[in-house]
Amino acid sequence: GAGVSQTPSNKVTEKGKYVELRCDPISGHTALYWYRQSLGQGPEFLIYFQGTGAADDSGLPNDRFFAVRPEGSVSTLKIQRTERGDSAVYLCASSSYGQPYTQYFGPGTRLTVL
Amino acid sequence: SQELEQSPQSLIVQEGKNLTINCTSSKTLYGLYWYKQKYGEGLIFLMMLQKGGEEKSHEKITAKLDEKKQQSSLHITASQPSHAGIYLCGAVPPKGGSEKLVFGKGTKLTVNP
Predict the structure, then answer these.
(1) How far apart are alpha carbons A59 and B39 in whole angstroms?
(2) How many separate domains does chain A show?
(3) Please, are residues A47 and A59 in contact by the beta-carbon 8 Å criterion?
(4) What pLDDT was estimated at residue A99?
(5) A1 pLDDT exceeds 60?
(6) Cystine design at B26: which of A7, A106, B3, B109 (Cβ 3.0–4.6 Å)?
């Protein structure tokens, strides 16, 4: 079946602008995760959802970052007042309910803030 | 907080050679994921190890978990150019806690034909 998809694949924006990044999980997966990966680093956790609710948002760096998953499927990561330091690849993953919760990743959205 | 250290950071080998990548955790390992990432792409799941001493294979890639040493090794036999990429280890979270994964920084593998 189809894997995790993310749109757009690339996003270039100017400092101070608002951006939205979208993630479509694997059909039927109840959990959805957002990570951020900077050059030369491993992915860093941002937030994850179990169904519609955020189960852990401890990785969001500040209140400019927000994510929603209103119907328990598609999720949108929203970044307000973007800064150059927000430039990174934003990865989304999903997993089905029950151990071992293997997370399957999408191709990522490369965000560049000029 | 848990940290995963991968070694080496990068590796260049000639096609056909064997190689090993290591991942060491600063805290108790409840299991470990291995992923592969091509430049500019997402992570491809390779395998997950859950029990101490567990060993799994996927094509020519074998990984083993040593719970006592809090580390895992990934071994590639007779490497091919298709094995090139960045290999990432991720710690399985403890049961009952957050499901977030903690990753190492990755090992960049280049295989020269």
Answers:
(1) 24
(2) 1
(3) yes
(4) 62
(5) no
(6) B3
